[in-house]
Specification:
With 346 residues, the chain is an alpha/beta fold. It contains 13 helices and twelve strands. The strands form three sheets. The protein has an eight-stranded parallel barrel, surrounded by eight helices. The relative contact order is 0.15.
């Protein structure tokens, strides 16, 4: 009996909500929350795994995480992944903000780890000078690590809400993380309960060497900008090998090829389906992160043109089998490190 391709290796699709659209449209739409709601709902109709929204201290614009927190209650299944810069920001606050997005979205949050390299951006804060990329990404990796520890600092059953005794939490199930990095230290515990997903999904653009090490050590999803399947396949193999060397299960790392797209017509939409199918069949990647020239136009043509072709070819699901972003990606909910350590007999 033959096995459906859908059962062999799922194809993951993600879409960037921002793009190099015309300046007049960018100014009007960048601050309109309904613009992002419409796009996210459209991506959800196409059963995409998640959408991303970029952010940077180098340009004016709304905070990506706050925008997607507004989108969350207006959507039901699509994963929401804002860019969050770890340079010049407090890791404790980053962890809390991403955790809050996971609660608001009922388990659909992730975050793209970013760094800030320029002197102009450093002057906005006035705390320190710009640093080399290696140092910034080392700090970003530590921010990802301490965020995961803070998410674990509340065990899942720490909240007891016992009105009779006036006890809100079981303090025996709250934990100090006592993390000391190269540029910061965090004692913890968090001020918010453990996220619905345990850990919101960590995404890293692993195109550069310094970022690739952080992706191998901490990411659930690594994005790789590649122009051909061979380059993408080599990057995927390298990331999986490095993750294994760091003691991680490489099967818990999803590597997506990050590609620019510009769809003018229905023929482009079918051509994109052909490209996606060919790259996926070659094992070049676990899916695709599409970066549009015009988000509104290209997402509509992706959902109405490319997605049905992929579904017809049994490469893409027709409905969401789960509710959380981790379930979309086929990733397990992480165990709580402190709960596991507490239960180990001495």
């Amino acid at each position: 009996m033959s096995v459906s391709p859908c059962a062999l290796r799922p194809l993951h699709l993600a879409f960037a909500l921002d793009g190099p659209i015309r300046r007049a449209r960018r100014g009007r739409e960048a601050y309109d929350p309904e613009h992002y709601v419409r796009l996210a709902r459209l991506a959800e109709r196409g059963t995409l795994d998640f959408v991303t929204l970029g952010d940077s201290f180098a340009r004016p614009g709304p905070d990506a995480l706050a925008v997607l927190a507004r989108v969350a209650p207006r959507t039901g299944r699509i994963g929401l992944v804002p860019a969050v810069t770890t340079t010049h920001t407090e890791p404790f606050h980053v962890s809390t903000a991403v955790n809050t997005l996971d609660w608001v979205s009922r388990g659909r949050a992730g975050w793209t780890v970013e760094v800030s390299r320029s002197r102009a951006e450093a002057r906005l804060f006035g705390r320190r000078d710009a640093a080399p990329a290696d140092a910034l990404w080392r700090e970003a990796g530590e921010a990802a690590e301490v965020s995961a520890r803070l998410w674990d600092s509340w065990e899942d059953d720490a909240e007891i809400r016992d009105a009779a005794t006036g006890r809100f939490v079981d303090r025996g199930r709250l934990h100090h993380v006592d993390f000391r990095g190269t540029t910061f230290s965090v004692r913890g515990p968090s001020i918010t309960p453990r996220p619905p997903q345990g850990h919101p999904v960590i995404v890293v653009d692993a195109t550069t060497r310094a970022a690739r090490e952080v992706a191998a050590a901490h990411a659930d999803v690594a994005l790789v900008r590649a122009e051909d399947p061979a380059t993408a396949g080599d990057a995927r193999a390298g990331l999986r090998a490095r993750a294994r060397a760091l003691g991680r299960d490489p099967d818990r790392l999803r590597v997506l090829a990050s590609l620019p797209v510009e769809l003018y017509c229905s023929g482009d939409a079918v051509g994109l389906a052909d490209l996606i199918g060919d790259w996926h069949a070659d094992g070049a990647c676990d899916g695709f992160h599409l970066r549009p020239a015009d988000p509104q136009r290209d997402l509509a043509r992706l959902v109405d043109g490319t997605v049905p072709v992929l579904q017809h070819r049994c490469l893409l699901r027709r409905f969401y089998p789960g509710a959380t972003l981790r379930e979309h990606l086929g990733l397990p909910r992480p165990a709580n490190r402190y709960a596991a350590a507490r239960k180990v007999p001495s």
